[in-house]
Amino acid sequence: MLQLATAIAKAEIADNIYELVLKTELKKYTLRPGQFVHVRVSKSTEHVLRRPISISSIDAEKSEITITFRAEGPGTKKLAEINTGAAVDVLMPLGNGYDINTAEAGEHVLIVGGGIGVPPLYELTKQLNKRGVKTTHVLGFNSKKDVFYEEAFKTFGETQVATADGTYGVKGFVTDVIQQIGTDFDKFYACGPKVMLKVLDNTMPMDGFISLEERMGCGFGVCYACVCETTAGEQVKICTDGPVFEKGAVVL
Amino acid sequence: MTDKLHISLPGLELKNPIMPASGCFSFGEEFSKLYDLSELGAIMIKAATEELRMGNKTPRVAETSSGMLNAIGLQNPGVDHIIEHELKYLEQFDVPIIANVAGTKIEDYVEVARKISKAPNVSALELNISCPNVKEGGIQFGTDPETARKLTESVKEVSAKPIYVKLSPNVTNIVDMAKSVSAADGITMINTLVGMRLDNNGRPILANTTGGLSGPAIKPVALNMVYQVRQALPDIPIIGMGGIATVDDVLDFISVGADAVAIGTMNFTNPYICKELIDELEKKTEEMNLNHIHDIKERAFL
């Protein structure tokens, strides 16, 4: 689970959004889209908590994963300063990702991402398309400067972007785009802010899967920091039982 | 393993003085997939209460400089479940288990202690009179010497195993607190310090508003408190903890008089830390030409 990786490429792909390509041993794992890595910011004890970051792309042949994060606080800002060639200490793979077997070849699914929730959906759409599933993507951001991965998603299917301030694409939220394109899909898969997930969870008529985020301590189920309640009244851990849950399974 | 690290304490034969602290190791199962738990000196399992507890609202953790705040709220499946499942799982390992006991009223502690002290693989109890994150119980027992005395005596009466009391650092006089629990077989110290962190909009990050500060940031406080208690109570067994991250930190705690130590927060940062510290401590005793790790015990007083 604890692994040393090497940063082999880094890029700022939107305002404060960074992509880090890590080379690491992947043979022993079966990675699923939607899983995450828990990255130690540095060897010093200044940052005692690791940072949970989504895997946005997996290249098993090259033994590489790409992680995408927003440099927001002091820890992630420090991560954004990592030089290529540097060793990166990660716990991986963590969490239950999306199950691509939930969509059959020939089905048409809706992929909905909001902000820093977009990255894990990229590997998901890659794998779904490889399986013969047709995907339509709706990505929401705050502003034009925050938009990323639009071109990447377009190579796999129709992709629409919404910005809250209207500086790019449709003015408004992902739900405004969905209102235009309708909900005639077999399934939906979403990741993004809780308020977005809540609306989708309540209004999408088809089955779907959502991925949650929460402040985490350990990332592997021992500290009980990132819990949420299921609609059945039980408590689950987002890091190990999630982060992906079926529509209607958890209280948002 | 060498006898140079072996420690005998009431109810506990420790292969080495390193053990994970309560609340930072859950009930061990996740860590058992990373290394052999039998290598540990002991395991302090997550707090047990009489009934299942759901804990506090999220966010429950926030990072601070060289530390973290937590306000989990003693989430656990309840003492009966812990005896039937979590402790059963741990039976396959050759390691003493210290069961952390929590409650709201004295009667709760007594009931949990009565039950869990009978579990065959529980070697000792740790009375959690210092959890800062629950509205009732916890810290109120740990900040008033008279209440702490009553609680310790009541639990001692029913427990089938030795009792260690976990002291809170959120007190004016730690020595008074330590003396008040003299009915106990030993002391574990320190629990977390009450703290707070705000977000960029000036509002508390934790849903509980305040949380317990742990991690390397609190080590100087912990070290001083162990030093004070050891000075006042030369014979009481002490398991010291608070911000231990390196083998030198372990030596520091033993130097001020701790018999053994526990590792908390750093289990999150590095899940292999306890195992690594045991290996490093063994090397260190060789390098320092010690016959036993306790050769350096209390050297801070010389």
Folded structure, characterized:
The complex is a heterodimer of chains A (252) and B (302). Chain A contains five helices and 15 strands. Chain A is α/β, with parallel strands linked by helices and 252 residues long. Chain A folds into three domains: 2-94, Elongation Factor Tu (Ef-tu), domain 3 (Beta Barrel), CATH 2.40.30.10; 100-211, Rossmann fold; 213-252, Dihydroorotate dehydrogenase, electron transfer subunit (Dihydroorotate dehydrogenase B (pyrk subunit), domain 3, Ribbon). In chain A, the strands form three sheets. Chain A has a seven-stranded mixed beta sheet, with helices on both faces. In chain A, β7 (108-114), α2 and β8 (134-141) form a beta-alpha-beta unit. The longest helix of chain A is centred in the middle third of the chain and has 12 residues, at 119-130. The model of chain A has no long low-confidence stretch (mean pLDDT 96). In chain B, the strands form three sheets. An eight-stranded parallel beta sheet of chain B has the order 3-14-13-10-9-8-7-4, covered by helices on one side. Chain B has a four-stranded antiparallel beta sheet with strand order 5-6-12-11, with no helix packed on it. Chain B is an alpha/beta fold and 302 residues long. Chains A and B meet through β13 of A and β5, β6 and α9 of B.
